[in-house]
Amino acid sequence: MCQPHSSASAIEMAHAAPDPTCAAAAGRRAPSARLKLWQLPRKYHCPVIGSCLHAAELRALARRSGALLEHGRSDYEVHVNFVAAAEDRNVLSVAAQKALDRKYAAALRRFARARSAPELKDLWQAHVADGRIPEAFWALMTHPQADPPLRTLAYEEVHMLSHQIGAGLAADVHALGESRAELERLRREQAATAARHAAALAERDRRIATLAARVADLADSERELQAARARIHDLEAGNALRGLWEQLGKLEAAHNAEAEQRRSLEAETNRLREALAGAHAEQHRLAAALAEREAACGALELLLEDPAACPGEDCDDCPRAPHCVDLGGRRILCVGGRGSLARHYRDLVQRCNGELIRHDGGLEESRQRLESLLASADAVVCPADAVSHDAYLRTKRFCKRADKPCVLLERSGIGAFARALADLAVNIGPPTIEAAPAEVH
């Protein structure tokens, strides 16, 4: 757990104007009322703020509130100031409370229907299984029916998941390095193939020139043969006739040999032309594979960038704006895919401001659940190499019938999935801006 930074002002302007009614209000809180951030035990402030609000969101809250000068501070220092401010009601803690309530309003409504700790525990476990941990963590920790053992259970699970997520990011960085190495290998292979094709084309041109010269020689031989036949026709008798016939036989034999050689050379020319056409087709295939790898690597690099690197909320002047992948909070359904990559799929969708739901593609889950998930999703991604034939056809028919955005992938790798998210972000358009709920004082 983090501790306040010794060199930075712990709360700065946030403690300059504390709410004098904080303690009295905490004592008067109705048993059915949700807890505020500053009413939670101190040890929960760090995981709640760290898991439920990104560093960029904390900086934006600090700028809007005017209670903390976030410029020149590290993400850690901004986080520590918010954690320290959460100990009582002040400008920063109230701003964080409102931001959390707005961001996870849907989860708060779902958890509000729970009337006991066992019901809350079931809701928590269902959200953890679906990967919707931040929203469930905030809704559970502030719920009036959450008892200390249940809060402790959620706290422990979030603590361990933070370690697992760190390990998963390291694996993604390793996969990106391998993809870059593979891309470089493909570039070298393409360059070598192009060099071989250029050499083959030069050899073909040389042989065609040789064949043209031989064809010209054959034409000269044909003319000579015709002239010899004309002389023989004029010499029908005499001692010279035998010599002429012998000469004619030699010329005919030479002509036949040349004709046979010409046919052989023409066959060789046709074979070289077919080989050249095959080489061109192979070159086009390699170029397409290279372009696909480059696009997948570009999408994966963009998705793996630190969200804190975003310069701010105004995207009009942002140089990254044409390449940002923002799903606008939409629900993305993944039908099939490798189970070992499910956690990475979910992490990529969350990085793109989306929500991932998944069906295993007919391996164990029912067809009825696939229909309901397809109906509730905003867009669909279906890797064709890790899904049943029935689930693939049903998904394709449903999306075509419902005019729902759908990306059918040939492979289920992380790079292909990242490129599919980029395509979906373009196809489904900009996110819909909903009116913010009224602030509760």
Describe the model.
The longest helix has about 90 residues, at about 150-235. The chain is mainly alpha-helical and about 450 residues long. It is elongated. About 65% of the residues lie in helices and about 5% in strands. Helix 9 (about 150-235) runs antiparallel to helix 10 (about 240-305) and helix 10 (about 240-305) packs across helix 14. It has helices at about 20-30, 45-50, 55-65, 75-85, 90-105, 105-110, 115-130, 135-140, 150-235, 240-305, 340-350, 365-375, 390-400, 415-425, and strands spanning about 330-335, 355-360, 380-385, 405-410. It contains 14 helices and 4 strands. Residues about 5-30 and about 430-440 have low confidence and may be disordered. It folds into 3 domains: about 10-165, no CATH class; about 180-305, Orthogonal Bundle (Helix Hairpins), CATH 1.10.287; about 320-425, Rossmann fold (3-Layer(aba) Sandwich), CATH 3.40.50.
Outline:
The protein has 441 residues and is mainly alpha-helical. The chain contains 14 helices and four strands.
Compile the SSE list and pairings:
Elements: H1 22-28, H2 45-52, H3 55-65, H4 75-85, H5 91-103, H6 105-112, H7 117-130, H8 133-141, H9 148-234, H10 240-303, E1 331-335, H11 342-351, E2 355-359, H12 367-376, E3 379-383, H13 389-402, E4 406-409, H14 414-427
Parallel strand pairs: 1-2, 1-3, 3-4
